[in-house]
Amino acid sequence: SQELEQSPQSLIVQEGKNLTINCTSSKTLYGLYWYKQKYGEGLIFLMMLQKGGEEKSHEKITAKLDEKKQQSSLHITASQPSHAGIYLCGADPYYSGGGADGLTFGKGTHLIIQP
Amino acid sequence: NAGVMQNPRHLVRRRGQEARLRCSPMKGHSHVYWYRQLPEEGLKFMVYLQKENIIDESGMPKERFSAEFPKEGPSILRIQQVVRGDSAAYFCASSLRQAYNSPLHFGNGTRLTVT
Q1: Distance CA B88, CA B90 (A)
Q2: Does residue A10 contact residue A39 with C-beta atoms inside 8 Å?
Q3: Over its length of 115 residues, how does chain B's per-residue pLDDT go in tens digits?
């Protein structure tokens, strides 16, 4: 099955600083999704990456998928308190032999923004 | 545009009782996924349904758990004879089509506490 490792597990960053979260797969990624979860709430879809080398941005968040399609990174520029939460990467099992038809998720990265 | 609606938000059950969790997908979505989230385990896929059909239940415990998505009405996740280990957040997600190339939209979850 598809295994997704996220690093770091938790991150404390001073407001205004940049940060990067990584997601590494044991298999080639054919679809990689980034979600954000606020504590006690559901997941909010951020971005989807499919092609090797692809990069997408939304406001101050940029996500990249490496050429080998086994690692993705999420970069936040000039962090704000509203960025605090849990960031999860999810992989599409289609074509990956993952078995289940639902997305497989990493365990998440807990991001805390210090004022 | 209503998102994915889950109810109740919080559910308390005593050991041995039944828990029923409801999920109304986004308008126009016919694919529903149920996930369970535990603090140390992350988000785990349970079951994938389309209208009136269970497509993949490989993540669902073999006993006490069942899911349905009838032609009319919400999807239901049913847990019979609950035990303390069932305490978790249960999330429902929906999509327009099978997950590949189509992001999942999540509800805010139902937090089940078994006393």
Answers
A1: 6
A2: no
A3: 579 999 999 999 999 999 999 999 999 888 999 999 987 788 999 999 998 899 889 899 999 999 999 999 999 999 999 999 999 999 999 988 765 667 889 999 999 999 9
From A87, which residue of chain B is nearest by alpha-carbon distance?
Answer: B42
3 state SS of B53: strand
Instruction: Tell me which of B90, B100, B112 to substitute to probe the interface with A (most A C-beta atoms closer than 10 Å).
Output: B100
Distance, CA of A58 to CA of A60 (rounded, Å): 6
| CB-based burial, B105-114: b 16+ in 10 Å, e otherwise | bbbbbbbbeb
Tokens, residue B18: 């039944």
User: What is the sign of the dihedral through the CA atoms of A84, A10, B94 and B102?
Assistant: positive
Round to whole Å and give the CA distance between A56 and B19.
Answer: 41
